[in-house]
Amino acid sequence: MHALERELREELGIVIDAGTAVSVLTHSPNPDLDIEIWAIGAWTGDVINAQPAEHDQIGWFSIEHLDDLVLADDGVATACRLAVGHVAARSSETGDESAS
Predict the structure, then answer these.
(1) Which of 17, 23, 22, 4 is nearest to 44 (CA)?
(2) Domains recognised in the chain with CATH numbers
(3) Other C-beta atoms within 10 Å of 43: how many?
């Protein structure tokens, strides 16, 4: 959790409420890449690209626009699709429609 908090602070300029962080998915599409996706329910600060030397840009997008993005690895798109499915399944199990 400390690594997640540090990375989001360093790369996006936000401080997360760790109590709202939920690991949604861990996906390893190949031996050289492990992807972990988290849902963060609350944070303080404005989301910015605090590391422009590492990231061309950041932004909010819908799953429908995923194929329009230039990603470092095809496994990232697969992991995002799987994560959306996991979040939707969890929200339907709990009756929380705001999570989908």
Answers:
(1) 17
(2) 2-99 (3.90.79.10)
(3) 19
Helix (H) / strand (E) element for 15: namely strand 15-16
Cα gap 42→26, rounded to integer Å:
21
CA 69 to the chain's CA centroid: 15
Q: What is the pLDDT of residues 26-67, one digit of tens each?
A: 988 888 889 999 999 899 999 999 999 999 889 888 889 988
Answer whether 0.90 is exceeded by the pTM. no
Confirm if 91 and 100 have CB atoms less than 8 A apart. Answer: yes
How distant, in Å, are the alpha carbons of 66, 77, 88 from that of 34?
19, 13, 22
